[in-house]
Amino acid sequence: MPSDRRKTGATSKKQVEECSQKNAGSEPLEDPADNESIVTTIQDIKSSVETIRNDLSEGDQSVNAKLKYVSEQSESNYEDISLLRQENAQLRRELELLRSVVIRMDRKMSVIENDVTDLRSRSMRDNILIHNYPFEPNENLTTSMPATFKELLGVDVSFVRIHRNGVRPEYNSDRPVSITAKLTDRSKINTILNAQKLKKIAKQPLPFFITTQQPASIVSARNKVFDTADSLRSQNITVKIQKNQVILPNGSTYKDDVPFLTNADALLVTPEETEHLDSVEIKNSDPIKKDGSEFMAFGARVKNVDDVKKMYSKVLIDPYAASADNRILVYRLSTENGTVHENYHDDSEHGAGRKMLRYMKENNINNAAFVITRWMGDAHIGPQRFSIMEQVINEVANSLEM
What we know:
Strands 9, 10, 11, 12, 13 and 14 form a six-stranded antiparallel beta sheet that branches. A four-stranded antiparallel beta sheet has the order 2-5-1-6, with helices on one face. The chain has a two-stranded antiparallel sheet with strand order 3-4. Helix 11 crosses helix 12. It is elongated. Strand 12 (326-334) and strand 13 form a beta hairpin. It is of the alpha+beta class. 52% of the residues lie in helices and 17% in strands. The protein has helices spanning 2-26, 32-57, 63-123, 141-152, 188-201, 216-233, 263-267, 271-277, 305-316, 319-322, 352-362, 384-399; strands at residues 127-131, 159-164, 171-172, 175-176, 179-183, 209-212, 240-242, 245-247, 283-284, 288-290, 293-301, 326-334, 340-345, 368-375. The chain contains twelve helices and 14 strands.
């Protein structure tokens, strides 16, 4: 047994030596130059890491400094945005308040205008207007007119005062300027009008025509009622007039196809409705100035009443047009079934809509709508204003290729 152990030990030693020789022959020893290269590479990496660390954390241009600056700017921007939001909310509240105030003032102005019209009516209830009476140089109406009334109408009258209207008493266009007379006895008005009516029935011509004096707004509204009735009757629609309203065959009251719009109505137009109006193509004329007044026309081709409403609304929400003293709407169109829609709104420029509609008819301007704006000057320009309105309408009509 002992001999076997020695043999085994010798064999193991011999095998270890053989393995060492084999390993020594297959793998050479490490080169010192390689170690130096590894050390250099490690030093370079350490240097790069140090540079990166400096870039990240040290100096004003470091990443940490820049991140801190960005963070501070973000906080500042957030504060600015919050402040802007607060200011925007405040401005929105103020805008809504101003909008409400303007609407309230606009409605109050309407009430005031009605009150003024009523006061004017009361102040004119003793007055009559004498139209087309020939003008004579150095005329004395205080004495000549009572004698004329007595001779032609058989009525004794006397006047508190009587005068020609206007600065130039001779002629208003091609007719003599009307005469305003305030009667001493108001009860004579019906007597005068009845006498005039009898002369007309008897076909006895008179050198004048007499009417009661009323505020221009009332006269304009009454004329519009008659114009609407005449338009409907021309289309074989039987209507009648009762209390300054047009009554249709079914007994209902006629309502304007396109309602009159005020500044209050324009302020109530929603942003969605405003976007809907962008599809309306509108042309405008060049402005014309006369003695301080300025005129301009806006127009569009229309196929139906809805087109007129859109055009009218779009003009009225324009800040430039909204500042005008008067915005006169006039339109005329024929639908596919042959129905004619025509009407106007004077907007306190009394008589303008009626004359402009007549101008459209006389010049065959159809399927079109116009808004004529006027900024009032200090001087009165009289009937010239209607000629200027016709001029700007004609300019826009030509641009629409009517």
